Amino acid sequence: MNLVEISPGDFDVELDIRYASDNNFTGAPVYGRAACFLNEEAAELLAEAIRLAAAQGYRLRLFDGFRPTEAVQKLWDHTPNPDYLAPPSSGSPHARGAAIDLTLLDEQGQELDMGTGFDDMTVLSHHGVTDISAEAQKNRAILLGIMTAAGWDFYRNEWWHYQLFRPRRYPTLSDQAAGTRMMDPEEFQS
Fold first, then answer.
1. Which residues are Zn(2+)-binding (predicted)?
2. Which of 5, 70, 158, 186 is catalytic?
């Protein structure tokens, strides 16, 4: 399976790859470098989402895409919560290059209020909650509309997570198998 690198030069997106920084729920970098990859089908659907967002005056900020199996294990070891993370044994859609985590930016490049931050592992992150502002509910609905119109499925517990329908038809990949060089090779040597 080929992965496509999602770069601002080739896709009109902004990257904020959270797992390459300490600005994530673990408090430490998980990836050795900030990069975003998707499988070919997902990259095509992302291009459609970018087009639909632009038609409404929005851009997309990407937090994560392909997540090597080593990173899936590391996140699970830190916080083994199946409501918000796929157990390594089941194979995350991210490890298949079939999922994207993202938000919307307005015309000034500011993130829209979504009611919670990325990776907020609480009920307030779920689609359809009404315990957040009306503006945040509207913004989530706009993102949901753009992504589903572009052909993505959503995960009900995370307003930021979208994935392909039937992602399991793609294999999970390690960093080495994918050739992405996202992980620190010293850290995962056995």
1. 94, 101, 161
2. 158
